C-alpha cells in the first residue's frame, strides 16, 4: 500500500532551498550529453507540433485560445507556434501543448509513466518571446532544469498516491519552474508558483483516458496552462500552499540527486505517433517482418502480443478517430503489418478507413504476462507470436520499446522521423532550417529567437 503524504509534514525551507538554487540560479555544468539530448528533444517536439497542426483538436485548441484566452495587453501575449495568431501567454502554451499531446509522438521519461516536453517546450517559447536576446544555450539550460524538476515531481506523485494521474498533474511544476527562471523570480515566488501549480494541476486519472480515448489525452495542455499561470500569479503576489511533492519529508529522496543524475538524458524519443506502451510490440513485429519477408497482411492468420497490463488494456477495436487510433494496440499493429511502420498519415484521414487494416484488427490479441509486468514502468517490453495461414509459427524475442535507454535510435532515425512529421506541413527548406538549430543552439553565438522566428509564422505547406 502506498503511503499518502501528510500535508502538515513540510520540513520548512531547507529542502526547498536546494530546489530553488537549482531552478533559479544553479551554475553547475550540465553534462554535454544531457545538453545535446535536450536540444534534440526540443527539435523533435517541434516536429510533432508541426505534424499536429492539421488535427481537428489542434484547430479547436488554437481557435479557443484566441477566442477565450486572449491577452489584455500586448506585453502579456504570446504567438501560437505554426499559427501566427496571438493569445495570452498561458493560452498560447495551452494551445500548443494540447496540439502536441494529441499527436502522441512526443518524448517521455519511463519512470514517470508520462511526458515532459509537450508541456515545457510550449511554455519555453511563450515565456521567451519577450526576451529576444535570450541565448540558445541559456534557453536549453532552462529547459534542462524544467525537465529535471518535472521528472522528480512526477516520481514523487506516483510514489505517494494510490491512483495513476496524467502528466499534467506533475509537469505543471516543471512549467512553473521554467517560467520563474525566465521571469527572474525569487525563491519565495518560485515556492508559491510550484505550490499553485501542484494545487491546481489536473489530478486526472490516466486509465480513464486509456479505456475511453478522447481529446483530453495526457492532460499536458492543462499542465502547461496551470504551470504558466502559476508563475504569473506568483509574480503578482498570489500565494499557494507549499508543493508537498517537492517539500514533504517522504519525497526527499527523489530530489536528493539534483545536479548529479541528469534524467533529461534518459528521455526517450518516440519513433511512432502512438501510445508508447504499444511500441515494444510494434518493434517486435517489425523484427519478425524483417527476418521473414513472407509475413504480409495476406499470409498472417493471427498475432498474439504478450505485454504488460497497461499495454494489454489499450483500445482493442477499429478506431474512428486519431485519438482512438493512437491508443489502439491492435490498430497500430495492423498498420505495422501493412506498412512496415506507423506514420502520422496512417492514424488520420483515409488511414482510419482502410478496409485491409480493419480486417486485420480482429486477428490481433494481447495479454499481459508477469515477466513483462515486472519490467514496467522502467522498461516497456513485449514479444509477439505470428501464425501464418500455412500453420507456420514465428516467435519474436523479448523486445524493448526503441528510442530510449533500452534501445536508442540513431541520429539518422531521429532526423528521418522529424522530416516525416513535417512533410506536407512545412517547406523542405524550413524543415531543414529548424533541424539545423539542433546543433546551432549549442553555440554561444546563437539566440533562441533565431529558432523562434522559424516556428512563429503560419505553416507553409
Automatic annotation (TrEMBL):
Top-level taxon: Bacteria
Domain MmgE/PrpD N-terminal: 27-249
Annotated InterPro entries: MmgE/PrpD_sf (IPR036148), MmgE/PrpD_sf_1 (IPR042183), MmgE/PrpD_sf_2 (IPR042188), MmgE_PrpD (IPR005656), MmgE_PrpD_C (IPR045337), MmgE_PrpD_N (IPR045336)
Start and end residues of each MmgE/PrpD C-terminal domain: 272-439
Signal peptide: none
Family, as annotated: Belongs to the PrpD family.
Name of the molecule in the record: MmgE/PrpD family protein
Native source organism of the sequence: Roseovarius phycicola
Phylogenetic placement of the source organism: Bacteria, Pseudomonadati, Pseudomonadota, Alphaproteobacteria, Rhodobacterales
Amino acid at each position: 500500500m502506498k503511503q499518502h503524504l501528510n500535508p502538515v509534514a513540510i520540513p520548512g525551507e531547507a529542502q526547498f532551498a536546494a530546489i530553488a538554487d537549482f531552478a533559479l540560479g544553479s551554475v553547475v555544468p550540465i553534462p554535454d550529453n544531457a545538453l545535446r539530448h535536450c536540444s534534440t528533444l526540443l527539435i523533435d517536439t517541434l516536429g510533432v507540433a508541426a505534424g499536429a497542426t492539421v488535427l481537428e483538436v489542434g484547430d479547436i485548441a488554437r481557435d479557443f485560445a484566441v477566442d477565450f484566452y486572449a491577452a489584455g495587453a500586448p506585453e502579456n501575449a504570446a504567438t501560437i507556434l505554426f499559427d501566427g495568431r496571438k493569445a495570452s501567454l498561458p493560452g498560447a502554451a495551452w494551445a500548443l501543448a494540447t496540439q502536441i499531446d494529441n499527436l502522441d509522438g512526443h518524448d517521455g521519461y519511463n519512470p514517470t509513466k508520462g511526458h515532459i516536453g509537450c508541456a515545457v517546450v510550449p511554455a519555453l517559447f511563450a515565456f521567451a518571446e519577450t526576451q529576444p536576446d535570450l541565448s540558445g544555450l541559456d534557453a536549453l539550460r532552462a529547459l534542462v532544469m524544467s525537465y529535471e524538476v518535472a521528472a522528480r515531481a512526477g516520481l514523487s506523485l506516483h510514489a505517494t498516491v494510490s491512483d495513476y494521474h496524467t502528466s499534467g498533474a506533475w509537469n505543471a511544476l516543471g512549467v512553473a519552474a521554467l517560467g520563474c527562471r525566465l521571469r527572474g523570480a525569487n525563491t519565495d515566488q518560485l515556492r508559491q508558483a510550484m505550490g499553485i501549480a501542484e494545487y491546481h494541476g489536473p489530478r486526472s486519472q490516466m486509465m480513464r483516458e486509456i479505456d475511453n480515448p478522447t481529446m483530453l489525452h495526457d492532460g499536458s495542455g492543462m499542465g502547461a496552462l496551470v504551470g504558466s499561470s502559476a508563475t504569473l500569479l506568483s509574480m503578482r503576489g498570489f500565494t499557494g500552499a507549499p508543493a508537498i511533492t517537492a517539500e514533504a519529508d517522504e519525497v526527499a529522496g527523489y530530489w536528493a540527486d539534483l545536479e548529479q543524475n541528469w534524467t533529461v538524458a534518459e528521455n526517450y524519443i518516440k519513433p511512432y505517433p502512438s501510445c508508447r506502451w504499444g511500441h515494444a510490440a510494434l518493434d517486435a513485429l517489425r523484427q519478425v517482418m524483417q527476418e521473414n519477408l513472407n509475413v504480409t497482411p495476406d499470409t498472417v492468420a493471427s498475432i498474439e502480443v504478450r505485454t504488460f497490463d497497461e499495454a494489454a488494456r489499450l483500445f482493442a477495436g477499429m478506431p474512428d478517430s486519431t485519438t482512438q487510433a493512437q491508443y489502439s494496440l491492435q490498430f497500430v499493429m495492423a498498420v505495422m503489418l501493412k506498412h512496415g511502420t506507423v506514420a502520422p498519415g496512417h492514424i488520420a484521414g483515409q488511414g482510419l478507413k482502410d478496409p485491409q487494416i480493419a480486417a486485420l484488427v480482429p486477428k490481433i490479441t494481447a495479454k499481459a504476462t508477469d515477466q513483462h509486468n515486472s519490467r514496467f514502468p522502467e522498461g516497456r517490453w513485449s514479444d509477439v507470436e505470428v501464425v501464418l495461414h500455412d500453420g507456420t509459427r514465428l516467435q519474436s524475442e523479448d523486445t524493448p520499446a526503441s528510442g530510449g535507454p533500452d534501445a536508442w535510435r540513431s541520429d539518422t532515425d531521429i532526423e528521418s522521423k522529424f522530416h516525416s512529421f513535417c512533410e506536407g506541413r512545412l517547406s523542405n527548406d524550413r524543415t531543414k532550417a529548424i533541424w539545423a538549430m539542433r546543433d546551432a543552439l549549442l553555440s554561444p553565438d546563437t539566440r533562441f529567437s533565431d529558432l523562434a522566428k522559424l516556428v512563429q509564422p503560419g505553416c507553409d505547406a
